[in-house]
Amino acid sequence: MTGTVWYVARASGIVAYLLLSASVVLGALMAARARLSWPRFAVEEVHRFLATLAGVFIVVHGGALLLDTVVPFSLAQELVPFTAGYRPFAVDLGVVTAELLAAVGISNALRDRIPHRVWRRLHYLTLPVWGLATLHGLLAGTDRLDPWFAAIAGATIAAAAMALVARFSPRRVAA
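and the corresponding structure tokens:
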């Protein structure tokens, strides 16, 4: 059972990171008002779906880690930052990341009830969330030294960097 749990934890963490990265890239391109081939409402729905699905895979990742017996984690260690015994700094980056992403998700659910300026500032937390998730994967992941993982990390970092340059550049960029 432990082997299966370990694979589920690894795979769900990587899938969550890819989904989060895709959501960040798409969100940055929308904010940059990049010309996309799909209608804006469709792109917004895909962005929202990617973010929601990333959250689902983060829950699966955490749940699988709770079931792992080789490197056991308690629920408290998954919810309270800086309490993990295994690679404490790297793992706790993941805990903080998940909690910040939950805050962004809650603000999205309350978007119609909170001032737009407040929602927007909370939504900008997605950028440090993505950065912390990147560090978490590079420092805590069991695959962090494998070339295929380095390729995934490099591709997502490059894509996010280009989208963020487009987002924060003074000129509009075509996508």
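(Above: one complete record from the training split.) DSSP finds seven helices and no strands in the chain.
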